[in-house]
Amino acid sequence: MDPIPDTIPESEKAFTIDWRSHPIPPPNPRPTSSVYSDDMSIMTGLVRKVSEETRVQEYHTIACYMRENQALEDEIALHRMAWTGTIMLADEVIQAITIIEEGLITVDASVASAEKDWLAFWGIYKESLGPHPPWL
User: What is the model's pLDDT at position 72?
Assistant: First the structure.
C-alpha cells in the first residue's frame, strides 16, 4: 500500500478523500435495557428492597439467637438447681458422717467403760499387753 502522494492531479482530487482528516465515528452505543438503565429511581428502589430484605433476615436471625440463648439460659438454670441440690445432699451426708463418727467414738468409750466396770464388778482385771496400765 502506497501512501497517498502529496501532489494529486486535479482530475483525481474530487474523487479522493483524505481518510486521515475524517476519523471513523465510534459505533452507536447499544440502547440500555430497563434492567440496566441509568434511571436512579429504579436502582434506588432495588437497593431499598435489598436493604429491607437484609434487615428482615437480620431481625429473624437475632430473634432466633435470642430464643436459643433463652433456652440455654433455662437449661443452665436447671443444671444450677440440680447442682445446688447435689451440694446440699453432699453437705447433709458429710454432717451425717460426722455425727456417726462422733457417735462411734462415744459408743466405743461407753463400751470400754461398761466393760471395765463389768469386769471390776466381778473382780476381773485385764492384763496390760503393752506399756499402758491395766484398766483398774
Answer: 97
Cβ neighbours around 95 below 10 Å, total: 10
Distance, CA of 128 to CA of 136 (rounded, Å) = 10
SS3 state of residue 99: helix
Which of the pair, 40 or 78, is modelled with greater confidence? 78
Mean pLDDT of 117-131: 73
Contact 124, 131 (CB under 8 A): no
* pLDDT 10s digits, 99-114: 999 999 999 999 988 9
The residue assigned the cell 466405743 is 108
**What's the CA gap between 33 and 22, in Å, rounded?**
32
CA–CA separation, 131 vs 83, rounded Å? 52
Indicate whether this model's pTM tops 0.70. no
Distance CA 102, CA 96 (A): 10
Instruction: Say if residue 65 is exposed, middle or buried (CB neighbours under 10 Å; 0-12, 13-18, 19+).
Output: exposed
